[in-house]
Write a structure and sequence with these properties.
The structure is a single chain. The protein is mostly helical and 246 residues long. The chain is 78% helix and 0% strand. The protein contains eleven helices and no strands. Helix 1 (2-22) packs parallel to helix 5 (93-107) and helix 7 (127-154) packs parallel to helix 11. The protein is globular. The two termini are 30 Å apart.
């Protein structure tokens, strides 16, 4: 147990604590990315979509935190060869990846804290509704972590990893209706948004907060799709990712 705890702490120390302590400027982008869209939506909608924008910022932060794992794992694997050392040591792959995953949440904690405070003051929900929203955020994080881990093990260059990270962020958190209701997208273009799992996440979160009224069937379907997507991506990640080089 102590060895696993030490492995977790080592991953967190290397991937988040060290960087946050020595290069605090890197946190600026972590905070500004979700807040910039929030501010834009706030002014464009005259404040009417503030609740949607806050939830959208949380979804974007959780998803971006998971996909950021790709760039960090690729950097440590290809540039510092840390993964080779972990493979050759008694350390467990699960503990290493778990520590790296937790470190992404710690790295994104400033944005999560700010958005959570805004959520507390401007989005009023019951404990059950809050539980649904938190569950959605965790599913989004697990989905993005599995995508990031899979791509990191397949990537051979940090530049390629950063390109994939930016592409995923755009496709899943910028283009889909995360910061605003899907009803703002005219038909038939609206159907294209459902190719993104973040669309289902935002529908559930917005409905739970009372920001958008969806039918019980639509919400149940969104839950089924979101859970299924998470399970599929986790399964593909565990079965197809290359931990050891052939």
């Amino acid at each position: 147990m102590n060895r696993v705890a030490n492995q977790l702490f080592a991953s967190i120390l290397v991937n988040s604590i060290y960087e946050m302590k020595n290069y605090p400027v890197v946190l600026v982008n972590t905070v500004l990315s979700p807040l910039s869209f929030l501010i834009l939506i706030f002014f464009v909608s005259d404040g009417k979509l503030l609740g949607d924008a806050i939830e959208g910022g949380l979804i974007m932060t959780m998803f971006s935190s998971g996909t950021a794992l790709q760039g960090d794992l690729s950097h440590l694997k290809n540039d510092y060869r840390i993964q080779d050392m972990v493979v050759a040591s008694p350390a467990r792959a699960g503990a290493y990846v778990a520590g790296m995953t937790i470190s992404e949440l710690i790295y994104s904690s400033p944005a999560i804290v700010i958005l959570s405070v805004l959520f507390y003051f401007y989005v009023h929900v019951t404990a059950i509704q809050l539980g649904s929203i938190v569950a959605v955020m965790l599913l989004m994080f697990l989905t993005s972590v599995s995508i990031g881990f899979l791509l990191a093990t397949l990537s051979s260059d940090i530049v390629q990893s950063f390109a994939f990270t930016r592409l995923l962020s755009t496709l899943f958190t910028t283009i889909p209706p995360v910061y605003y209701p899907i009803t703002f997208i005219p038909l038939p273009w609206r159907y294209l948004a459902y190719f993104s799992p973040t669309t289902y996440a935002s529908e559930i979160a917005q409905n739970a907060a009372g920001l958008v009224n969806q039918s019980a069937f639509n919400i149940d379907l969104a839950w089924i799709v979101l859970v299924a997507v998470t399970v599929v991506f986790l399964g593909v990640s565990f079965t197809k990712a290359r931990w050891r080089e052939k």
